Amino acid sequence: MTARAQALDMLRAVARKDADARIVHHFATDPGRLERMGVEAAGLYLDLSKQAWSAEGFEAAIDLARACDVEGRREALFGGEAVNNTEGRAVLHPALRAADDADFHALGAPVSKEVAETRRAMARFATDIGSGAETGGTKQPFQAIVHIGIGGSDLGPRLLWDALRPLEPTIDLRFVANIDPRDMAEALAGLDPETTLIVVVSKTFTTQETLANAELAKAWLAASLSPRRMAKHLVGVTAAPEKAEAFGCGRTFGFRDWVGGRYSLWSAVSLSVAVALGWDVFDRVLDGARAMDQHFLEADLERNAPVLLALAQMFNVEGMGRQARTVAPYAHGLRRLPAFLQQLEMESNGKRVKRDGSLVDTATGPIVFGEPGTNGQHAFFQQIHQGPQVIPAEFVVVAHTSQAAADAREGDAPLWSNALAQAQALMVGKTEAEARAEMLASGMDAAEADRLAPHRAFPGNRPSTTILMDALTPEAVGALIALYEHKTFVEGVIQDINSFDQWGVELGKVLARAILRDVEAGAPSEGLDPSTAELMKRLMV
User: Fold this and answer.
1) How would you classify the pairing of strands 144-148 and 172-176?
2) Residue of 378, 448, 506, 537 with catalytic role
3) 104: helix, coil or strand?
4) DSSP 353-397
């Protein structure tokens, strides 16, 4: 039996014992629990003390990380080795936010110089648009940007913009991802082609949804601008610049194949955000992510925030069979965080085979869902408090979400007090006896209290992690996203899967093209399954 298999067995055995214990009791029997399970990293504070593990369970999780050689795989990631083994690629998103004098290599080839050159080009472009030195084809300054992308080319930049946008931005930044033409129509509504920049983001410049939307935007520009002038309004961000130029982009910004889509927001993929926020703000986002990279590289496993966050999930999923997790950001600016994490985690680790192609021996890719607090409290929190399934929760809490809140009498306390209360309630719960006593104290008669007590009881003992930040600064947002990137990587190492390919996305794309060919032919092709053929006929009417 390998060291990994032994460590997995030990984790499962300890988890079975911890399943019978109550989290709140661990604080009484383990006085050092909060200090040991509270970690500061790159301006964030993580409290993992409300997780279901005992001190023994915590140690078993650390032992698992060591047995899986998390430290060695971490060195391989930052060393530019072929971590993405199915595609033979390095995975070097940390290089995108590294200092200018960094020396990253992808499969032995130096990459940091090229990264720095692209970064300088982005900074010049952002500064020139902000100052008015860079204009559209009719010499008018740009007042709006339409960012076209999907998946990693959309979710990361959109999250950054939502988190950091000023209340009155100087540039109106809009995003289009859905191939439904309504998405593009809404984005273009009220804009002037002569003052609008279209940024098309596609790694291969072949993504069906992105190119369909880009064609719509191009036609919209062409109705007002000549082809020569229109080129000033089309920018491509891609690893295939020749295709972007052939499309009509007057300018392109590149990134390499060692940048995975869902890890690419640190690159030119976020060009539109860097322009709209200003380069200084975007550069501070990179600073925050770089600080988390240093923490991940240097901190011992027992004090390593991404490692501990990953181990808490492994303990819940693999140790206790909990196949879902909710993420509740208590900050309106982070409202897209759950959607971003759905792609980051479920596309990365939703795999059925290990790196060597054999079937997995652990659960992988738990379901991630969420809504911003306090909205989620009035939606699915009923389920996580009183439903039969135990769903671990993650609370992302910001002390000061805005200047308006800071100026208010109570500040942000009404918001973050709800987050603390939800985490507390999930852990402590309420017994039927406590519920009955409350009702009797309120004057309810005993028979009615007996009838209602089961309905008002909460089982409690439901785990959660809380992540605190002081404010939604660019540095804190960068650190938070990098924290989750490294967490996802650590989980993949422990599960022995490749977190950096996404073959599950491809089959549907191939079949969609085949269906479109049938539509063009006017009838379902021979051999198409009866259900799909019937649905196609009804839709073609």
Assistant:
1) parallel
2) 378
3) coil
4) B-TTSSBPSS----EEE---TTGGGGTTHHHHHHSSS---EEEEE
CA distance 54 to 51: 8
Catalytic annotation present for 509: yes
Q: What is the pTM of this model?
A: 0.95
The verdict on whether 526 is a catalytic residue reads no
Active-site annotation holder among 134, 194, 347, 485: 347
Active site residue 438: no
Tens of each residue's pLDDT in the chain, 541 residues: 899 999 999 999 999 999 999 999 999 999 999 999 999 999 999 999 999 999 999 999 999 999 999 999 999 999 999 999 999 999 999 999 999 999 999 999 999 999 999 999 999 999 999 999 999 999 999 999 999 999 999 999 999 999 999 999 999 999 999 999 999 999 999 999 999 999 999 999 988 999 999 999 999 999 999 999 999 999 999 999 999 999 999 999 998 889 989 999 999 999 999 999 999 999 999 999 999 999 999 999 999 999 999 999 999 999 999 999 999 999 999 999 999 999 999 999 999 999 999 999 999 989 999 999 999 999 999 999 999 999 999 999 999 987 555 555 567 899 999 999 999 999 999 999 999 999 999 999 999 999 999 999 999 999 999 999 999 999 999 999 999 999 999 999 999 999 999 998 888 888 999 999 999 999 999 989 999 999 999 999 8
